[in-house]
Write a structure and sequence with these properties.
The strands form 2 sheets. This protein has a 6-stranded antiparallel β-sheet. Strands 1, 4, 5, 6 and 7 form a 5-stranded antiparallel β-sheet that branches. Helix 4 packs antiparallel against helix 5, helix 5 runs antiparallel to helix 7 and helix 9 packs antiparallel against helix 10. Helices cover 45% and strands 21% of the residues. It contains 12 helices and 11 strands. It has 2 domains: 195 residues, Aminohydrolase, N-terminal nucleophile (Ntn) domain (Glutamine Phosphoribosylpyrophosphate, subunit 1, domain 1, 4-Layer Sandwich), CATH 3.60.20; 95 residues, Tetratricopeptide repeat domain (Serine Threonine Protein Phosphatase 5, Tetratricopeptide repeat). It is of the alpha+beta class.
Length: 308
């Protein structure tokens, strides 16, 4: 009997970044919350996409096989050999050494297929046409920059070539380090999901840009801690350029200016934020006792007067 909860006919990519060793997987489907079952990755181990009439156990089991010393090819062979429904499965694995293996079962719904390249694999099933996975391969190979952006570029190309015959609904992106730090909270570099959206790949692209902006904000915080004021201000400005009306980077940019004695320059930024929501002024008063705002009473009063 077919388990309809596992009908994640879709297109995906697994890849290893040759320069950094980072490992990633990205996917789109006309199915709710595709990332919750299809995308799997573990730092220093590998990345997996399990789809079509998916056997979701292939994700954790495959990672355990890789962690136990199996290659991508050996892991795929063992998983498929143990599965009575293998003719309905589509599975792709890249291991930490960049070895790739893929399986597309004979009963996967057309158009279905895969392409294995140097350190990556693209695969798709129930597609509008058979141009999808070649388009993904071309996009990934011709793109430059960090691995997450290249993975998304492959999804964009798949959608432009026709995509899922049913349309689109959800997408996901997961990227981990090529070597584990021993600190799991530091090993996942990007983890984004679009659970239900009319244009999930476009939304995933937007979320990746937002994630990069928040990385700039974190870099600004780190620069401030290191005494690099110019670097901090540049990072906050970069985040503001992406996040637009979101007051967060504008606010911390203002705080950074105030903390280095440039209160006059900070006032217009504080005004912009306070005009959106006066609660930011409440936060400003609370930062001094916490040691995060080092200005005197007079300067604090100047900032608070902006509320009036």
């Amino acid at each position: 009997m077919i388990n309809r909860s596992n009908l994640v006919h879709t297109y995906s990519i697994v890849a290893r970044d040759a320069a950094t060793g980072d490992l990633g997987v990205a996917v789109q489907s006309h199915w709710f919350s595709v990332g919750s079952g299809v995308t799997w990755a573990r730092a220093g181990v590998g990345a997996i996409a399990t789809q079509a009439l998916a056997n979701f156990s292939f994700g954790p089991r495959g990672l355990d096989l890789l962690a136990g010393g199996r290659s991508a090819h050996e892991a795929v062979e063992e998983l498929i050999r143990s599965d009575k429904g293998s003719a309905y499965r589509q599975l792709a694995i890249v291991d930490a050494a960049g070895r790739v293996a893929t399986h597309t079962g004979a009963n996967c719904i057309e158009a279905a297929g895969h392409h294995v390249g140097d350190g990556y694999s693209v695969q798709a099933n129930m597609m509008l046409n058979d141009a999808i996975w070649p388009a993904m391969a071309n996009a990934f190979e011709s793109s430059a920059g960090p691995l997450p952006e290249r993975l998304v570029a492959a999804l964009v190309a798949a959608q432009a070539a026709g995509g899922d015959v049913r349309g689109k609904q959800s997408a996901a992106l997961l990227v981990v380090r090529g070597e584990s730090t021993g600190k799991p909270w530091e090993d996942t570099l990007v983890e984004l999901r679009v659970e239900d959206h009319p244009t999930p790949v476009e939304e995933l692209s937007r979320l990746l840009r937002v994630a990069r902006a928040y990385e700039d904000m974190n870099a600004g915080d780190a620069a401030l801690e290191a005494g690099d004021t110019a670097g901090a201000l540049a990072a906050y400005s970069a985040a503001r350029a992406v996040l637009g009306d979101n007051p967060e980077p504008t606010y911390w940019h203002a705080i950074a200016l105030a903390n280095i004695g440039r209160v006059d320059e900070s006032l217009s930024l504080f005004q912009e934020v306070f005009d959106q929501d006066a609660n930011w002024a409440v936060l400003t008063e609370r930062l001094r006792p916490a040691g995060l705002l080092s200005i005197d009473d007079d300067d604090l009063a100047r900032i608070m007067r902006l509320i009036a």
